[in-house]
Hints:
mainly alpha
Amino acid sequence: MIQRLITRMIIVGMMWLGLSLLKWEALSTQLLMQALVFTAIVLLGSLMEQILHYQGDPYILPVVQAIMAIGLVFVVRINQALPDNPGNHNIALHQFWWANIGLVVFYAILWGMQDYRKLGRLRYLWGLLAVGLLMVTLVFGSTTGGATSWLSLGGIVVQPEEFVKLALLLFMATYLEENEELLRVGTVQWGKFSLPDWRTLGPFMIMVAFILGILAAQKSLGTALVFYMLFVLMLYAVTERALYLGISLPIFLLTGTLGYQLFRHVRVRVMVWMNPWQDVAGGGYQIAQSLFAISGGKILGTGLGNGIGASTVPVAISDFVFSVIAEELGFAGAMAVLMLFLIVVLRAFAISLKTKDRFGQILAAGIGILLGTETLIILAGVTKLLPLTGITLPWVSYGGSSVIVHFILLGVLLNISNANAVSSHTTKNKGRECAT
């Protein structure tokens, strides 16, 4: 208990140290109050874990809270550098709100969900929910940055695509659990290869076509890439058939080419990716400033609050927050953040391997694949390894929908871990009783 509490105190201490290095006079009383609420939830949560005998993975939650603390500090930092207009005044405060709500939702799922296996009974409901959310966004959503990804509900702007991630994960886990053997072995022979019949593969192909088709209509191609990789990697992880990876590559190249031909903003992003320096004051400005900021950080960084990327990199508070981290904390700090994400992904896979039921195994692995895929695509975009996608870094970038959904995923993941640890402990105790 003492070790757990000390770990959480170090995490919140890191956040308060970061805030103290910024301009205190620029921090509102409301923001400081929300920072105190965040501190209280983290510390009380560690006590509740002890009281309620949490036995799941001991590393993931502290690591995610450390990531969240870093993200909150940098959202405050970037918020201070934004132009002084009414729309920018409460961005950091809103992020603290979402972080606190997300932590509460996380603990509610961790302790309130009695049996995560019940989620697997609603396969088609999750699929319909995913399609429905995207359709509503396509019809009623607003367009920003070329993509129709936002929906206004009573004055609160949400990004339904984030909630679609959760629905798709649950759909994929239930579908793959039910059809694993047929997908692994196949029933129809095509030359040297055996593939599943249409009855088995049909629901999966229809869902993929619907989801990716709607995202293409929304011009939300960054999210489409994340979902496509999620579909393919989960299918490969469950079946262990390289054939599916081989089939997915030409499909990806074909759809990518179609997207390039059909959408002007995709062509612009590809041209900027290939050579941002030909229009460094125009289309290439964002990625050029990102590269300048990253390179300016060198090994140890310029120091928190001393970089220029927070004010020069467009959309730094969401899409390009990693560029500001790399500038002000340097290569060392940027690698530390990457290592934290790597720990979360690897521990998710470790939970998958330890889980006894197949649905829990697939769902835990899917959460790890999603987090790893998102992080890889985002960081590749801001470092010019891939064209820009416009998606956010989990728990770090500004955005309420992203924060809430990723805390829900975390709650499900640790609920799986805790449930299986409790089950194993109970089984061992019964075995000892029988032995005596």
